[in-house]
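Lecture notes, continued. The same structure-token format from the folding unit now serves as the input rather than the output. Read the line below as a description of shape only.
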């Protein structure tokens, strides 16, 4: 299950990143990224990635407002596209899907930050998602 969700989170992140850079239909972008994935995604990973991107598409404005409320002395436009896409993916999942293993979700998003961001991105993402998780799960 861990690998299924981790791959789904990465696909959803890549989809939101591509959308932020080029625009277009999020669902089409996600499907294209899924189709090009190597090794091919398992059915559950596809389903979960598409769920995240669908929930984001349905709630863009609310998600961006919520992210902005967690950015101290920053606004969303100040963030790089990588950081913005990671936060959008994570906030979508935490607010609209509510993963049972929230700590594992944070670990997965920090790993995405390690793989795609700069050296400061992982700690930035970890800090914000830890606060969000604490607020949602009272942990």
């Amino acid at each position: 299950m861990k690998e299924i969700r981790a791959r789904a989170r990465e696909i959803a992140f890549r989809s939101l990143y591509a959308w932020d850079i080029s625009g277009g239909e999020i669902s089409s972008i996600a499907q294209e990224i899924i189709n090009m994935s190597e090794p091919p995604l398992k059915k559950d990973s596809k389903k979960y990635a598409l769920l995240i991107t669908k929930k984001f598409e349905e709630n863009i404005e609310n998600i961006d407002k919520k992210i902005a409320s967690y950015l101290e002395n920053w606004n969303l436009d100040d963030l790089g596209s990588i950081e913005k896409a990671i936060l959008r993916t994570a906030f979508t999942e935490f607010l609209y899907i509510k993963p049972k293993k929230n700590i594992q979700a944070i670990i997965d998003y920090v790993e995405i930050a390690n793989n795609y961001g700069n050296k400061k991105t992982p700690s930035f993402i970890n800090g914000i998602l830890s606060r969000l998780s604490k607020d949602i799960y009272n942990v």
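Point for the exam: Residues 2-137 form a domain with the N-utilizing Substance Protein B Homolog; Chain A fold (CATH 1.10.940.10).
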